[in-house]
Amino acid sequence: MSLFDWFGGASQAAESAPAVTSAERLALYQKEWCPYCQRVKAVIRELGLELTEYDTNDPEHLQALMAGGGQRMVPCLRIEQDNGDYFWLYESADIAAYLRLHFGKAS
């Protein structure tokens, strides 16, 4: 990953994830102590977004993450698609790129 990818360039994973126009269709699975989660939360604050957050220290939220996304890894962004299905995006840099791509201010 290059600095360009982390600080603003969209990754291939971010570009291939389904686009949504409302942050209400996003949820972040995270842990408070996770530095990668904190990086994603910093981007969320930077963009002025309000997302539902689920702390996977709660067994119910961890089970939902495992059942839906198939991995325990956090952070994970759950994206609700138009058809009601969910797309699960992992990796903090990919999540940050996705959020900037779809919710960033146009230059």
What does this structure look like?
- The chain is an alpha+beta fold.
- The chain has helices at residues 3-7, 12-16, 35-46, 59-69, 92-103; strands at residues 26-30, 52-55, 76-80, 86-90.
- The protein is built from 5 helices and 4 strands.
- A 4-stranded mixed beta sheet has the order 2-1-3-4.
- α3 (35-46) runs parallel beside α5.
- The longest helix is centred in the middle third of the chain and has 12 residues, at 35-46.
- The protein starts with a helix and ends with a helix.
Keywords:
single chain; 107 residues; alpha+beta; Glutaredoxin; 4-stranded mixed sheet; 5 helices; 4 strands; disordered N terminus
Identify the CATH architecture: 3-Layer(aba) Sandwich
Report the principal-axis shape: globular
Helix content: 40-55%
Q: State mean pLDDT (0 to 100 scale).
A: 89
Number of strands: 4
The CATH topology: Glutaredoxin
- CA gyration radius, whole angstroms: 13 Å
Tell me the number of structural domains.
Answer: 1
